[in-house]
Structures are given as structure tokens and as C-alpha cells.
Amino acid sequence: MQGQWFPKKTWINLGGKTEWKRKGKSKMFLNDNLKIFAGSSNVALAGAVCKYLGIPLGGAKIDRFPDGEKVIRVEDDVRGRDCFVVQSTCRPVDEHLVELLIYLDCLRRASARRITAVIPYFGYARQDRKDEGRVPITAKLVANLITTAGADRVLAIDLHAHQLQGFFDIPVDHLTAELVLSKYFRDKKIGNLTVVSPDVGNMKIASRYASHLGGELAIVHKRRVSGSEVEAQEIIGEVEGRNVLMCDDIIATAGTVCSAAELVKKRGAEKIYVGAAHGVLASQALERLRNAPIDEVVVTDTIPLTEQAKKIGSIKVLSVSAMLGEAIKRIHRNESVSSLFNNL
Ligand code: R5P
After folding, report:
1. What is the pLDDT of residues 253-263, one digit of tens each?
2. Confidence band, pLDDT 50/70/90 cuts, at residue 283
3. pLDDT at residue 338 above 70?
4. For residues 157 and 320, what is the distance between their CA atoms, to the nearest angstrom?
């Protein structure tokens, strides 16, 4: 590994503004060719990735002009460096998206050698098709914007659909939180297990979990009434007297998992666990999760939990930082990323 000794830099958040400052004098081994920057959506995750890699977070100031426009200034020299910007396009979605675009433009104009947009949660992913007249395909628009702004590659986790990779004409490394979620549930050693897909779209994921964890498989047929209302109508498979694990990629309004949980409970399920990569947890989700017959909801830190969500005791958060850090290291060294998932 190339590298040299540099003064250790840690970074502190100054008040309400996202501004980062160096402190500390100890030494650490740093590969100065690799730079990781954090957008304001998920600074904790970016920091944890840097910790995994043993490098400091890149210095940048994110501020606003009095008229509300955002301005970013990268404080480290990035000329010829391999740069990664970690930004989930979670709520406030448009603000985080624009911030990512500005970051990419900033690094491109500062002559970074290669820029990877690390998007742990990719907002707008579900708007990926024109299924009625006069609607946009916003996922494609966002992919175009990210590429135009300057990204050479994308590193994402559990895109809502695999084919979203094709919306980009640059390489996309697509990771899955199944790596951390299935380890967690395997370690729990849940006996008498049925893995339930809460809708037809998640069938493949559920069947992978069932084979890793050694459980039966069941599927719920759901009807979407509106953007926030769903109705679990029927279930194929045996849940009576069994512990249930429900897997989804996103919990947004929690309508999908909560209505499926009600149905499997009615059909005699014992404990009900839910595992999902992205805890979007829109406002009504918290009320629903509080009232649903769910024993534990496990999400990852692709999106930071709100203070209200933290108060719900049944929500547990696992970190994807080691997986992301390992993928970044491998991309940086031109090593295989897919082999990370060989055992899945
Ligand atoms: C659907 O296709 C997805 O996999 C999720 O099941 C869905 O987006 C979750 O949304 P909500 O929590 O609002 O039901």
C-alpha cells in the first residue's frame, strides 16, 4: 500500500452549520491518494467508513449564501486523487441531491482524478417507470444529473430495482445490506422460521434469506391503495405457529410491512421480525410501527434515524460502514467488489 505518515486529523461539527475543522496531533498511516468526503445527509456513516479505512474525513465547508443557495468549498488538495463523496439522497431529498451535485462539480473542477458518488440510499429510485400518462421517470433524471455533475462511478446499496444500474452510463457498484442483515438474523438463531416476502417484488430477496437462514418461504399478495396505503390480501405459505422474518428493501410509510404483519399474526404467526436496508420512515411509519404486532424492526444506517424514530424501542440499526469501507478500498485498489458477496 502506498502512503506516508501524516498528522492525524479528526473533525468536529461546529454548531448547527455543517462545517468541519481539524483537531488533534497524533499520527496515523494515511494513503493520501484516497479522499472521502461527507455530504450533510449522513456524516456519521461517512465518519465510520473513514474509521474503518483508517483515514480522516476530507475537509470541506458546506454553507449557504444569505439567499439560501448552498456553497461547498473542499479544503483538501484533491488534484489527481481518487475521491469518494458519501451522500444519501434521503429527506430533505431535493436538498441532499443538489448538495451531492454541487460536491461532484466542485471535485471535478478541482481536478480530482476519479470521483465516485457513494449513495447509500438513492432517493427517487421508486420513480423508475412511466406506468401512466404524463408522469416523469425521475430516477433516470437523477442518474443523468449525477453523471453530468461529474461522477465517474457510483457506489450504491440496495437500489430499489437492480435495473436502475442501467440508468447510468458509468460503472455502478451495487452492494446489498443482506450481508449485514442476514448475519444479524443468523446469529439470532431464530428457530421454526418462515421468511415472508411482504409483496411479490421482494420474492427473490426473501428466498435468498430463506436459504441462508434455513427457513420456509411464504409470500404476501398486497394491493397498493395509494402512495401511503396498502392492503395485504392473501398469503401463500405456512405461518401458523412459526416465527416470521419479513424482508423488504425500504420501509417508507411502513404500510407494506405493517399490513403484512397484521395478516401473518391473524394467521397464527408467533414472533415477527422485519429486516430492511433503508429506514426511510416517513411520518406515519412511526405510528404504524408502534401499533403493529412486530417484535423487532432492523434497518441499517444508510439513512440516519430521526430523534422520534430512536424512541421506538423495537427499531434496531445495523451499520453498513464496514461493507462500504471495504468496497471503497477495493474500488480504490482496482480489486473485485462482487467477491464481497461470494457467500450470499
Ligand atoms: C415496494 O415495491 C418496496 O419494495 C417496498 O415494499 C415499499 O416501497 C415500502 O413502502 P411502504 O413502507 O410505504 O409501504
Report:
1. 999 999 999 99
2. confident
3. yes
4. 9
Distance CA 196, CA 209 (A): 9
Query: pLDDT category, 342, cuts 50, 70, 90?
Result: confident
Q: Rounded to whole angstroms, how far apart are CA atoms 194 and 74? A: 49
- Taking the centre of ligand 1 as the mean of its atom positions, its distance from the CA of residue 79, in whole angstroms, is 41
Structure confidence at residue 228 as a pLDDT band (50, 70, 90): confident
Which domains are assigned to the chain? 31-176+322-341 (3.40.50.2020), 178-319 (3.40.50.2020)
Residue nearest atom 7 of ligand 1, based on CA coordinates: 250
| 4 Cα to the center of ligand 1, angstroms | 47
Pocket flag, ligand 1, residue 56 (CB < 6 Å): no
Cβ–Cβ under 8 Å, residues 300 and 320? yes
Report the nearest atom of ligand 1 relative to the CA of 202. 4
Give residue 285's identity as a one-letter amino acid code.
Answer: A
Mutation probe of ligand 1 site: the residue of 124, 159, 256, 257 with most atoms within 8 A of C-beta: 256
Distance 251 CA to ligand 1 centre (A): 6
Single out the residue of 325, 291, 285 nearest to residue 305, CA to CA. Answer: 285
Cα 181 from Cα 301, distance rounded (Å): 12
Ligand 1 centre to CA of 280 (Å) is 10
pTM of the model as a whole: 0.90
* For ligand 1, atom 13: residue with the closest CA: 253
Res. 7: pLDDT tops 70 = no
197 lines ligand 1 (CB under 6 A): no
